Amino acid sequence: MLILAAALLTQSVAEPPVDWDKEFGVEEKMRDPVTGEFPVDPYVQGDGNAGAKPFDGEAMADAFGGQAGIRRIANRTVELSEADPRIAAIFASHDMVRLKRTLFEQFCYILNAGCTYTGRDMTASHKDLGVRTRDMNALVENLQRAMREENVSFAAQNRFLAKLAPMSGAVITRSSGLACRTANQRWPSADCRLPIGRSRKRTQLIGADLVAN
């Protein structure tokens, strides 16, 4: 009986678990009940943040299936990247709801499908991600797969990727320790680009930003 009483006394005075978030002043973020997105710090919005000017005319938007097709491609690219062991860690801390929306807006704006881009600029979006060239290449592969699944022509894919290519300078922030070669050229790793199209005469080399935020 004495042992039981001592055990009960010990349980009754046990300290409650520590709320470490509260102790260190960490505020729990709540999703917006309408958009389902977590709040972000204020920033200046504008189409210029998209990183590229839109195509002229409607041909590219039509080639991607209009807004509906572009949305499927953007969502699929994010889903493939989340499941890709090469780059899944980069996406682990992202708000996937917001990412899918802003990536769709970016693609839609650049393809001239009638959208406004409301995300942050490419430098601000990627400054803390430590993206390497090989990470970018994996993203491009996932985008290519998403475009193929939507039956986007190879020519339209190349035109779109070429539009995205200059953004890589703002996105790649860490060296991968690799180098790219052709028969007569060598580039530092930060300038490597994924071969996306081959012909008898040349290989087209590009990289692209795919993580709008």
Please characterize this protein's 3D structure:
The chain has 213 residues and is mainly α. The chain has a single domain, classed as Globin-like (Orthogonal Bundle), CATH 1.10.490. 44% of the residues lie in helices and 6% in strands. It contains ten helices and four strands; from the N terminus they run H-H-H-H-H-H-H-H-H-H-E-E-E-E. The strands form two sheets. Strands 1-2 form a two-stranded antiparallel ribbon. Helix 4 crosses helix 6 and helix 4 packs across helix 8. The longest helix is centred in the middle third of the chain and has 17 residues. It starts with a helix and ends in a 7-residue tail after the last strand. The C terminus is likely disordered.
The total tally of domains equals 1
Instruction: Name the overall outline.
Output: globular
What spatial order of strands do you see in the largest sheet? 1-2
As residue ranges, the low-confidence spans are: 177-213
For the record, the CATH architecture stands as Orthogonal Bundle
Radius of gyration: 23 Å
> What's the name of the CATH homologous superfamily?
Globins
The N- to C-terminal Cα distance equals: 63 Å
Q: Please count the beta strands (DSSP E, at least 2 residues each).
A: 4
Sheet with most strands: 2 strands, antiparallel
Please report which band the strand proportion falls in: under 5%, 5-15%, 15-25%, 25-35%, 35-45% or over 45%: 5-15%
Mean pLDDT: 75
Helical content stands at 40-55%
CATH class: Mainly Alpha
SSE order: HHHHHHHHHHEEEE
**Treating each run of at least 4 consecutive H or I residues as one helix, how many helices?**
10
